[in-house]
Amino acid sequence: MKSYRLEGLDCANCAMKIEKGVQKINGVKEATVNFTSGKLTIDAEEDHLATIEQETKKVVKELEPDVKVTEIDKEKVSEHGNEKERNTLFRILFSLAGIALLLLFDFNEPIRLIGYLLIYLLIGYDVVKKAVMNIVKGKIFDENFLMSVATIGAMLIGEYPEAVAVMLFYQIGEYFQGLAVSHSRKSIRELMAIRPETAHVQTTEGLMTVNPEDVQIGQFVLVKPGERVPLDGTIIEGESLVDTSALTGESVPKSVYVGETVLSGFINKNKPFLVQVEKSYENSTISKLLELVENASSKKAPAENFITKFARYYTPVVVGLAVLLAVLPPLVVSGAAFSEWIYRALTFLVISCPCALVISVPLSFFGGIGGASKIGVLVKGSNYLELLAQTETVVFDKTGTLTKGDFSIQTIDTKIDPKKFMQYIASAEQFSTHPIAQSVLEGYAGPLLPTTNIQEFAGEGILAEVDGKQVLAGNHKLMERFEISFPLSQEIGTLLYLAIDQSYSGYLVIADTLKEDAVDALVQLKQAGVKNTVMLTGDSKKIADHIGKQVGVDKIYSELLPEDKVQRLEEILQRNNKKTAFVGDGINDAPVLARADVGIAMGGLGSDAAIEAADVVIMNDQPSKIAEAIHLAKKTLKIVKQNIVFAIGIKILVLALGAFGFASMGDAVFADVGVTVLAVLNAMRSLHVKKEDE
Predict the structure, then answer these.
(1) What stretch of H or E contains 120?
(2) Average pLDDT of the segment spanning 108-118
(3) Does the domain formed by 354-402+515-694 have CATH 3.50.50.60?
(4) H-assigned helices in 589-664
(5) Which family does it belong to (predicted)?
(6) Distance (Å, rounded) from C-alpha 12 to C-alpha 22?
(7) Which of 243, 397, 512, 615 is catalytic?
(8) Is 397 in the active site?
(9) Cα–Cα dist 123/137, whole Å
(10) How many other C-beta atoms lie within 10 A of the C-beta of residue 420?
(11) Could you report the per-residue pLDDT of 23-48, keeping only the tens digit for each?
């Protein structure tokens, strides 16, 4: 098995063609193209790979000459795609300048013809070239053919501005599609940056820095502060705090000691520790997580461009009718001149140019995307707007999505003065780096008492002398260690007990808090047409049930690992006919975000990886924005459907009039431009969705 990068691949249809072409190569067991990451994977015998690689390059060059096949390695990614985008932009700008010049100055023939011909060749040569190459291969009817026939037809009968304008608008649409794909591809690559780069292996000769792939099971790896744990294993020396958010999504660092298992992807926060490796790199947790992301994104069926689907049927019909119109009447009707009917057929082709659709459909979607950005929602592509409009199930992560992800003091229950209670507990915790201690200090603003003889009990709490008194601050284990009787509490969250001079004084509760609009968000989703709401979390059942009931979700799944979340989502997807959205914020949510029909990330406080893996990003972290985005998506889709019906309906009417000679070339162009203007104006309404909602 070997993987290659397809640089310059910017259309889903092209990806499908390449996949089919490579699968036909002799010796290839299976070939898959992941359009999202621009990756081609070939499964074949090792000794045949070199020959297959050469054949693959030939196939790709034949199908898509602009796509470059490169071997995936750790080298810098080629700028091939960026260069292509820059060239297209320069061509668009030069063409616009040329058209403006020709319209401003009324040039006589043949200067006018030469001017428009040069602009046409500049902006449209690649489309015409592709159309010709496809005809040679027997693949006639695609969008390139449609654009070429319609525009060359317009040029032949003297409608130069129409021909150039249509080709120009088409190229602008292609340019924006290319930009969107490049951004998506960059996102996937940035996500892959969470992969550990090095491992410090302890040998008889000292420490050796190697690639994690080269580390053997049973070897000892030193993890320094600030580094990622490179491989799964057990701590045999040292202790520390580790950031587990990459895998669990939980924001509170975890204390780890000798004998405990640590997973690859954990980040060591403060002290070095030695790990005995128990799994090879390819079987490690982080490697599997990244694999999940890639595989999950490939399961998403890439949405075919509407115009390609439309052209598949529309083009052969229109071209066939145009040929019949040019040939049949002169043969059947007496006195009918070939020149007149050829003119009508060319008029028919000019009218057939789907200018209104080419411009208005993407513009409606871009308007919807622009409208979404105004309300703080980033939608990464027009197809996601369509999917949002069809969403009936919304699945939520808990921490950082429905809750704030910041742990603070929720309850104080004490026998003594609360201010005095907080002063003692904050003084005892003042030198601790533990997240719980930090939460206590953040919740106390007063003066601290002199504290000496501090003794920390790992995983339990602190014994200290505060203002001459013996103070115990910790969990129930610490109280039990010093045989202090204390009442059991049913509070939800982390409980921190206080005992002064062996006497129980009270407790405080530190817990994650719900986002202010979390409850409203669930109500609004139901109003927006969402039928099912689900919560998936790695947190304990007790906390998950408590939060789930508070916000009002229909179904709760707790104590899940990242792969469990994907599995649960798969089950939900199989049960539902309609679309399913997943809302998350951590790196651990990335595979689920990628697998869902629509992945929605909390952008303000969420991880970069989750934001990049998602299709929709809520910029201000408010879950209520999801319902607004769904409302907006539905309105945008409604506008798109209106434009399609309107543009095709008028087009068919004018085509009929043109066929019977009731529409001249001028009328045809006017009708075409008029329909386009009206469709564009209608498309612009999608920008004002927010105002309509208000």
Answers:
(1) helix 111-136
(2) 87
(3) no
(4) 590-595, 608-613, 625-659
(5) Belongs to the cation transport ATPase (P-type) (TC 3.A.3) family. Type IB subfamily.
(6) 16
(7) 397
(8) yes
(9) 24
(10) 14
(11) 888 888 888 886 656 778 888 888 88
